[in-house]
Design a protein that fits this description.
The chain contains 9 helices and 7 strands. With 215 residues, it is of the alpha/beta class. It has one domain: Isochorismatase-like (Rossmann fold). Strands 1, 2, 3, 4, 5, 6 and 7 form a 7-stranded parallel sheet that branches. 41% of the residues are buried. It comes from Cryptococcus amylolentus CBS 6039. Pfam families: Isochorismatase (PF00857).
Amino acid sequence: MISCIHKTAMSLNPRKTVLLVCDVQERFRSAIYGFEPLTASICKLVKASQVLGISNYVTEQNPRALGPTVQEITSLLDESPDEKLNLGRFSKTKFSMITDEIFEDDIGLPRYKNFILTGIESHICITQTALDALKITEAENIYIPVDAVSSCNKEEVPIALDNLRQRGVQITTSESLLYRLLGDADHPQFKYIAKLVREEKQNTAEALQTLAAVL
């Protein structure tokens, strides 16, 4: 029993985990349901990833037409204490984030065992990324926090997430993920994460009330 519990607790190892931020761009700010709380949830995950040593991978859908990733996110990435954690920010036309670039040696996305998938849109890019990751990469676990994904039409979200859940994707919340990554209150970054959770309490509540309410 002890070994089984230990194995479960270690299944979300930060060093084997990557945070994916999909197409959270300026042009979508007024089009996506719950865009502001979604962005706040992603920013919380980015802050946590930087102290936990989690790599991040960011894509932009046709940025010439749709603009760059929103400043709230890019400013955090630009201030990263460890640039090696920033695997890159890539433009794409493909809906899936699983593009040819991920196989390059300096990115090596397929080697990560745990994918945390955030961004837009749930029924298009998020869905296709999750399915491709299951098929093409070595990912053992794909996590989608409900407070960090959305679509233009909110009714699309529960359908997409239910479909992905049936394929083995784990549907969760950003706060639950943070504590899964810690695993133990004795973790050296526990105080930082607990403080971050307290500071983001209002944003988290708003995100859940807005984005989880559609499920």
